[in-house]
Amino acid sequence: MTREPERIRVLVVEDEESFVDALTVGLTREGFDVTVARDGHEGLALFRERPVDVVLLDLMLPKMSGLDVCRSMRADSDVPIIIVSAKGEEVDMVLLLEIGADDYVTKPYRLRELVARIRAVLRRRGAHELAAPSTEIAAGDLRMDVDARRLYVRGDEVKLRKKEFALLLLLLENPGRVLTREVLIDRVWGSDYVGDTKTLDVHVKRLRTLIERDPKNPERITTVRGVGYRFEPVSPAGL
Ligand code: CA
């Protein structure tokens, strides 16, 4: 399946007006789709609201530091994050890498350098049109682009958190097969599984609200009582 090449979506989290303006103009001219947040809270809120391909994250931000924003984004997503620091600002590179940043640039930087770095992190992630054709799984009205970690439901992109994506991928890879709770938990969470046994059910519930036509009467992810869950292959009539 092919689709029109999409513009790379950049979320710029930056509070300095002069940089915001120059970046917006420059990146838009380079063909990027730019969204701007002026502080840490707004950055995180926008990030959770709509999918982006790459984040440019200033370190010194009002309300919430760039480091904390980076940690929060990383908890939910593998999106490439480029940290932007001010000249003379002390930057702990080891810490940046530990919290999952992909790269960093120091202000002032040239637009060309920034664009090259954005393309480089996307290439490293194997994301978007720069990469080889991606693997897709289609099942009725669902389409998952595995490499780009994207899900389309009836043609619209739906944003999934990391574990939701992993869980749905596992289900999609095993259509019609009952997957036990133990297998799902082990494969999706492994030793990360903390909390009560409801965590799996909470994730299934959220997936249903995203993909089912009627989440209260699920037809795609069905419950096998006392055992686990099953992803239903498409009915002969199609969905
Ligand atoms: Ca700043």
How is this structure best summarized?
With 239 residues, the chain is α/β, with parallel strands linked by helices.
Give a verbal description of the structure:
By secondary structure, the protein is an alpha/beta fold. It is built from 8 helices and 12 strands. The chain has a 5-stranded parallel sheet with strand order 2-1-3-4-5, with helices on both faces. A 4-stranded antiparallel sheet has the order 6-7-8-9, covered by helices on one side. It has a 3-stranded antiparallel sheet with strand order 10-12-11. The protein is elongated, with a radius of gyration of 20 Å. Residues about 125-135 and about 235-239 have low confidence and may be disordered. Calcium ion (CA) binds near residues 15, 16, 58, 60 and 61.
* C-alpha termini separation: 18 Å
What CATH architecture of the largest domain would you give? 3-Layer(aba) Sandwich
Instruction: Tell me the total number of β-strands.
Output: 12
How much of the residues is beta strand, in percent?
15-25%
Sheet with most strands: strand arrangement: 2-1-3-4-5
Task: Return Rg in Å.
Answer: 20 Å
Q: CATH homologous superfamily of the largest domain - what is it?
A: Response regulator
Which structural category fits the helices and strands? alpha/beta
CATH class of the largest domain: Alpha Beta
Mean pLDDT: 85
* Topology as a string of helices (H) and strands (E): EHEHEHEHEHEEEEHEHHEE
Total individual domains: 2
Largest sheet: 5 strands, parallel
Bound molecules: calcium ion
> How many alpha or pi helices?
8
Low-pLDDT parts are 127-133, 235-239
